[in-house]
User: What shape does this take?
Amino acid sequence: MEVAEFFLKFLIILISAKFFAEMFAYLHLPGVLGEVTAGIILGPSLLGFVKVDAIFYLLAEIGILFLLFEVGLETDVGQVVKVGVQSFLVAITGVLLPAAAGFCISNYIFHLSLMVSLFIGGTIVATSIGITVRVLVDIKKHQTKTAKIVLGAAILDDIIGVVILAILYDFAVKGSVSVYDTAKVLGFIAAFLLIAPVITKLLTPLIAKASLKSRTQGTIPTIMVSLILAMAFISHKIGAPGILGSFAAGIALARRFFLPLGSTIDHYSPGLAEKIEENMKPIINLFVPVFFVVVGASINLKAIDLKSVTFWQMAGFLTSAAIITKMISGIWVKGSLMTKLSTGIAMVPRGEVGLIFAEVGKKSGIFNDLVYAIIVFLVALTTLVAPVLLRFVMKGEE
Amino acid sequence: MEVAEFFLKFLIILISAKFFAEMFAYLHLPGVLGEVTAGIILGPSLLGFVKVDAIFYLLAEIGILFLLFEVGLETDVGQVVKVGVQSFLVAITGVLLPAAAGFCISNYIFHLSLMVSLFIGGTIVATSIGITVRVLVDIKKHQTKTAKIVLGAAILDDIIGVVILAILYDFAVKGSVSVYDTAKVLGFIAAFLLIAPVITKLLTPLIAKASLKSRTQGTIPTIMVSLILAMAFISHKIGAPGILGSFAAGIALARRFFLPLGSTIDHYSPGLAEKIEENMKPIINLFVPVFFVVVGASINLKAIDLKSVTFWQMAGFLTSAAIITKMISGIWVKGSLMTKLSTGIAMVPRGEVGLIFAEVGKKSGIFNDLVYAIIVFLVALTTLVAPVLLRFVMKGEE
Assistant: This one.
């Protein structure tokens, strides 16, 4: 890409994301929806201006890493552990029900082949952790108990989703599934989730020293971004989503993260936590919207043939199932019906993961254009509608 | 590029830049040299780890835009205008002498063709504004009078360099030069330099309002980066270097920039200037080193055949000429011999522009491998040696 073209495209992505986010916020809708809308408008659905060029795809990946890092920073591990069982039950239910529903609808009602039905079931599983988290932040509910349960469930759900994709893909290519390989990946992920925050935490005194003794500028942002990239790289290498790494890094640097043998970050270096937040905020705020614009630009609504009856039938069944099954998954949450409902709705948005599944399915020839278009429709609808619902349902929650 | 590969490469660029910058700063050398050294080590000269992938090239371009924006922010236009005549004379001398010397050495001593000699003359003209400015910042002399003269001269020199390249390239391709086209480009650039800061300045009340009324996060960094990209894009489109645009944007937002009909930025919105600086510093500090690592990684020292006698003869003559002619250009500065000398030395580093010229020359078949290697040697030497000299010469300056 030409330098001038890059400047122009980056500029338009930033400005349109900001413009639509402000507009949506003004209408009391989550700003993140404005950013996705900007992406839909700029992308192939409408203007076709932003082909998701490799560079913006990579910048978007950095954006989602930063978002999960920020969420980690503000997470109190103690509280997440406290609601751990509920998160786990929500995640498992939110995986099993949609997968089963998706498979049954495809296989028994629309008589698609076993492989295609399995893939559809896998595709509609994963909650978009990015959308969910940003919506909670946008409507200022990210410190509620519901938010903690949803966060834990969405992360588990993401991991399970990626593992399912890997298994199904193996099955499609080789015709068999290796239980050993699957167990290995799950073992690695579990080990990583336990070890990564501890290692990062042990690095804290070093980071504090480096930032104090540094003779050059920008030591804190450089070290932080490097740490995030390193953790994401390791996470990616062991087969987990990169965001797991940046989330672990964030958790370790959170003010409320204690280690049995250690102390909080404030103890090592008073003020370091504030400095990290101050330095990272502008960088995070600059890159996160790029991710959501790219998500929007990845949705090609033109792929949808609105005149096809089969499309509307299947899209209707699958999307309804995708919404209802996730809403049911909130049943495990202790509290009022409203709390159960808001947890369920928070799990509804499918986003980047669903689109990645659909792409893989299409490229490997498992999905035809019709099925692909249905998944795109399902992702677009759950992404755009759930946040609006959530805002109304969570109004009173604390 | 794979996402994981991108994370890893970005991480290594950031960490090695920081490590070498710290090491050089510890040895009382400008940190920027450490970053270029990191690039030379990572690049094809040694490890061959960082092929300058398109994405890092583009991120580097953003880095240099940010650097010039920051320099603009800290520039007092009044003072630059005050030393304008001296800057102008330094720039003109610093263009004419090296071009003439380069041409004569190539044509009369080494009997190269007219076209090749002209191109060599053009290639060794442009001072690396990036290196010069960063060195002055690194050794904390960027607020001296010398720095102001050098800044003005280096910018002029960059513009003249780009125009010369355009003319020579036209000449090489078409065999003739259009005086009209050249005049047009120069006219556009002059108009841009006058109008751009004024327009940006007039946007300030709008920016202030937007940042106050915004309901979303990260409005200031997003608007600032968008503004920088927009100005760079326009600047690029009219035929000037993109950095001219970001510099103009910085100048307009500087606290000391007055307009006949306007007021300073502090008047429109007290505290806005501080907020801009606070928000932009981490972003600037993250990206600027990427630029210098990429400059280092663009230098392929392996292109140099150290056993060639012709290489050493030509490289010796041309590099000496490139250094001495720029040192002479400082003669116009009012003040002691030391001031004249430090101005001249500050103009010595050739960097990115020289390398771009050399690439163009090589790709269009005008430069053979020998001439290309000589230019690479000249760029590497002037880039690495001048900053060290400058540090010693400017020690007492204020």
In short: The mean pLDDT of chain A is 85. The radius of gyration of chain A is 21 Å. Residues 179-213 of chain A form the longest helix (35 residues). Chain A touches chain B through 52 residues (CB under 8 Å).
